[in-house]
């Protein structure tokens, strides 16, 4: 198999599993139904955005007016609900630790220019990342609508995944911080007097040199509580927000994933309260089903996982066929080295890529003398050469070139 094809296939397999989008919003605990391409200017996939200088950094790719706009008023709590591939799945890979923010801009701007105001930001607090709290809240976080003038606005919730951000994307496009942002169309029907300062722009607010865009979440010597959330301070006129699960109001049962009833009773706002994600006792049917949090392997770990599996199987089959103890020891040894390196790459700990490169070199050197002895050594020679080149290039890129 061509290595290029192999790597492309492997990355396609993992890409859809690892990322996240906004499914919809809740207003004062009332589910507004699926917002994807309805009232959310949803990107076509849940892929991360890494090029912070791109013109589409404001509302992600596919920024266009969509048919619905959700009416809210000052004091309302708008809860965003994130998901991987479908509602109530595992939301986002738990490896994707980082901050969560919410910005707002007038819809008339379409997100362009210095039109954005920050309403909420949380990074690393009380011993955990905002994304950890989002997982505990089953994908929910919220903002309270401030007392701003009536009109149409875009809310822009944003997650930054820092699992590969030890280097900037413009230094190494294989890695870098991952941005997940979606723009939600709302209409504020109350007419407040607090003007939004509209101070920042996307692109522009975040630079590759901005503190917090490059950050190592795995560095045990760094106090993660000192993480500087990139971007402006939260606006003084913000009414705040939290990373907690919405309490279902007048709409029981929607938490199981079946409910899509929009609207609901608009007069129940004062009853609305929040609950902690951990202590939440409402319907959570997926707690034992599809929503096991997965640590989806990052793309560069995938070849090593596959090679590890191949070597283990190859070593054992070789032993069964020929009773060759050296082939068993070599296969299992190299296989375990590959698996260890894949795990390290996924976690971002030190030397994972180097170990994968070493395993590839070992495998290549031991299989190349037997290249013509049959299909198995031939395949091992070719795949180990390919993965060796792949990891060699990745290590080279990471070393600052
Ligand atoms: Cu991802």
From TrEMBL:
Domain CBM1 stretches: 267-312
Biological process according to GO: cellulose catabolic process
UniProt-listed Enzyme Commission number(s): 1.14.99.56
Top-level taxon of origin: Eukaryota
Listed Pfam families: AA9, CBM_1, Tmemb_14
Major subcellular site: membrane
One Gene Ontology MF term: cellulose binding
Signal peptide residue numbers: 1-18
Catalyzed reactions per annotation: [(1->4)-beta-D-glucosyl]n+m + reduced acceptor + O2 = 4-dehydro-beta-D-glucosyl-[(1->4)-beta-D-glucosyl]n-1 + [(1->4)-beta-D-glucosyl]m + acceptor + H2O
Keywords for the protein's UniProt record, in alphabetical order: Carbohydrate metabolism, Cellulose degradation, Copper, Disulfide bond, Membrane, Metal-binding, Monooxygenase, Oxidoreductase, Polysaccharide degradation, Secreted, Signal, Transmembrane, Transmembrane helix
A cellular component term, taken from the record's GO annotations: membrane
UniProt comment concerning the protein's domains: Has a modular structure: an endo-beta-1,4-glucanase catalytic module at the N-terminus, a linker rich in serines and threonines, and a C-terminal carbohydrate-binding module (CBM).
Similarity-based family: Belongs to the polysaccharide monooxygenase AA9 family. Belongs to the TMEM14 family.
Function: Lytic polysaccharide monooxygenase (LMPO) that depolymerizes crystalline and amorphous polysaccharides via the oxidation of scissile alpha- or beta-(1-4)-glycosidic bonds, yielding C1 and/or C4 oxidation products. Catalysis by LPMOs requires the reduction of the active-site copper from Cu(II) to Cu(I) by a reducing agent and H(2)O(2) or O(2) as a cosubstrate.
Record's protein name: AA9 family lytic polysaccharide monooxygenase
């Amino acid at each position: 198999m061509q290595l290029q094809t192999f790597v492309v296939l492997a990355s396609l397999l993992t890409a859809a599993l690892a990322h996240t989008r906004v499914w919809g919003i809740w207003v004062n605990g009332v589910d507004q139904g699926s917002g994807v391409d309805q009232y959310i200017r949803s990107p076509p996939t849940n892929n991360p955005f890494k090029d912070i200088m791109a013109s589409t950094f404001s509302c992600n790719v596919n920024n266009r007016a969509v048919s619905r706009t959700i009416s809210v008023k000052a004091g309302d709590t708008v809860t965003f609900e994130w998901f991987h591939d479908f509602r109530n799945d595992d939301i986002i890979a738990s490896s994707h630790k980082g901050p969560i923010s919410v910005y707002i801009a007038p819809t008339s701007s379409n997100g362009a220019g210095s039109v954005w105001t920050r309403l909420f930001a949380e990074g690393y607090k009380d011993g955990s990342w905002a994304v950890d709290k989002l997982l505990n809240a089953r994908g929910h976080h919220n903002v309270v609508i401030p007392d701003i003038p009536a009109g149409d606005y875009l809310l822009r919730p944003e997650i930054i995944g820092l699992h590969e951000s030890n280097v900037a994307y413009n230094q190494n496009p294989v890695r870098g911080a991952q941005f997940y942002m979606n723009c939600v169309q709302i209409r504020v029907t109350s007419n407040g007097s607090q003007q939004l300062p509209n101070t920042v722009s996307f692109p522009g607010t975040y630079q590759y040199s901005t503190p917090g865009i490059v950050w190592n979440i795995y560095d045990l010597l760094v106090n993660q509580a000192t993480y500087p959330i990139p971007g402006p301070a939260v606006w003084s006129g913000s009414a705040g927000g939290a990373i907690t699960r919405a309490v279902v109001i007048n709409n029981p049962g929607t938490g199981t994933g079946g409910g899509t009833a929009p609207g609901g009773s608009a007069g129940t706002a004062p009853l609305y309260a929040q609950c902690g994600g951990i202590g939440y006792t409402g319907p959570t049917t997926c707690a034992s089903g599809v929503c096991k949090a997965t640590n989806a392997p990052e793309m560069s770990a995938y070849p090593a996982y596959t090679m590890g599996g191949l070597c283990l199987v190859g070593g054992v089959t070789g032993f069964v066929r020929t009773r060759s103890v050296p082939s068993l020891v070599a296969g299992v040894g190299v296989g375990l080295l590959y698996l260890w390196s894949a795990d390290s790459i996924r976690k971002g700990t030190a030397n994972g890529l180097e170990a994968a490169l070493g395993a590839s070199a070992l495998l290549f050197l031991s299989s190349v003398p037997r290249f013509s002895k049959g299909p198995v050594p031939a395949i091992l020679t070719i795949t180990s050469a390919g993965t060796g080149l792949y990891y060699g290039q990745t290590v080279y890129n990471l070393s600052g070139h």
